[in-house]
Every structure is written in C-alpha cells, then in structure tokens.
C-alpha cells in the first residue's frame, strides 16, 4: 500500500518511517508546515529533513509555498485552539496531495510527538479524510519516542526545541 506521510520535521519522521516500512507500506513524505516560525527555523527543519530523507532513501514531496501570514491571520486570538487550525491546515494539504497522486492512505508524524493532541489529530484527520474519500492511517508512534530521539542524536540531526509556531516558541522559552 502507498502511504503519504505528512512530516513536521526530520527527527519526528525516523520512528514512524521505520514502523511503516516494516509493515510493508511504500512511504512518501510530504513537507508542508506554514506554522514554523521564524523562517530560518523553517529552513533549518527543511534542510534537516532533506539530509535525513537522502540518507534513508525517502522520497519527499515539498510544498512550494510557505503561507506564514495566512497561518498567523487564522490563529491570532485563538489561544490554545490555534492547534485545531494548524492540524486542519496541514492535514488538508496532505489530503490534497494524497488524492492527487492516488495514495491509498495518509498519516502524519504529528502522531510521534508526545506533545501533540493525538485524539484531536485523529478526529480531524478521519473527518477530513472521510470527506475527501481517503482513509487516515492512525498509529500511536509515541511508543518509539525514545528510540527516535536516540537515533536522531546519533545521526547529528538538528532537533528543534519547540513545536514550530511562534506561540509554542513563547511557551517554551518565556518564563515569568
């Protein structure tokens, strides 16, 4: 089966890629993350994924756009609910690519992070997938959190210290 895996960053793709390949999936990555701020962070995560993908022979489809302004317009004043928009935006983009190129299912590396809301991601992805006529493949990749961290460190991959958006950056570093 062909699966499109939305990828938030290189380190978060390590364990899910291993698991999906072991399960017999033909995996293609998709990088679309308008939430990542600042732009230099976006470029660093993108380059890290390029380097990692090349080392493991992973084909990645790269979104040609970086609509940060649109992301900020839609998330301003949402506080904690900003993640709903962020998940929907990235998953909807992945669905567009998956249906265009006839993938059997889609998934996301967001399911690897122990800091993401898995229930919300799953609900949004299943709903959007159902409407678009493509199945969402849910698997709890958090089981491999430590293994993925270990491998990424051994490989010397850049590991970002926050989710990606300006709001999560503030939450991570701003202490009153």
Summarize the structure.
The chain has helices spanning 10-22, 39-55, 68-75, 82-100, 118-132, 145-155, 166-173, and strands spanning 2-7, 26-31, 60-62, 105-108, 135-136. It is of the alpha/beta class and 176 residues long.
Structural account:
By secondary structure, the chain is α/β, with parallel strands linked by helices. The protein has a single domain (2-173), classed as HUPs (Rossmann fold, 3-Layer(aba) Sandwich). It contains seven helices and five strands; from the N terminus they run βαβαβααβαβαα. It has helices at 10-22, 39-55, 68-75, 82-100, 118-132, 145-155, 166-173; strands at 2-7, 26-31, 60-62, 105-108, 135-136. A five-stranded parallel beta sheet has the order 3-2-1-4-5, sandwiched between helices. Strand 4 (105-108), helix 5 and strand 5 (135-136) form a beta-alpha-beta unit. It starts with a strand and ends with a helix.
User: Which structural class best describes the helix and strand composition?
Assistant: alpha/beta
Number of strands: 5
**End-to-end Cα distance:** 49 Å
> Rounded to an integer, what's the Rg over CA atoms?
15 Å
Low-confidence stretches: none
Average predicted local confidence, pLDDT: 95
The major pleated sheet works out as: 5 strands, parallel
Query: How many domains would you count in the coordinates?
Result: 1
Q: Count of helices? A: 7
| Content of β-strand | 5-15%
Q: For this structure, what is the CATH homologous superfamily?
A: HUPs
- The CATH architecture is 3-Layer(aba) Sandwich
What's the structural blueprint in terms of helices and strands?
Blueprint: E1 2-7, H1 10-22, E2 26-31, H2 39-55, E3 60-62, H3 68-75, H4 82-100, E4 105-108, H5 118-132, E5 135-136, H6 145-155, H7 166-173
Parallel strand pairs: 1-2, 1-4, 2-3, 4-5
Helix pairs in contact: 1-6, 4-5
